[in-house]
Amino acid sequence: MLVAKGLITGKIYAQGENRAAVLRQLDKEYPYSSRSNPTEFSGKVFPEVLQIRKG
Question: Which of 12, 9, 27 has its CA nearest to residue 52?
Fold first, then answer.
């Protein structure tokens, strides 16, 4: 099990069986580009620096 954990607060933002699953979950919550127009970027970023670690 891997988790994406905030570096400052320690909050767990996503968890999954492998790195790809964690990144997919983060992409759902914090999308970087629009699904309807992939060339349009939203500029939305993660709330803090994240670490992906075994949890």
Answer: 12
Reference 4, options 13, 29, 55; nearest CA is: 13
Which residues are CB-contacts of 1 (< 8 A; sequence separation ≥ 6)? Answer: 15, 16, 17, 54, 55
pTM over 0.85: no
**SS3 state of residue 28:** helix
Cα angle vertex 48, ends 12, 15, to 5°? 25
pLDDT at 25 over 80: yes
Domain ranges in the chain are 2-54
Assess whether pLDDT exceeds 70 at residue 42: no
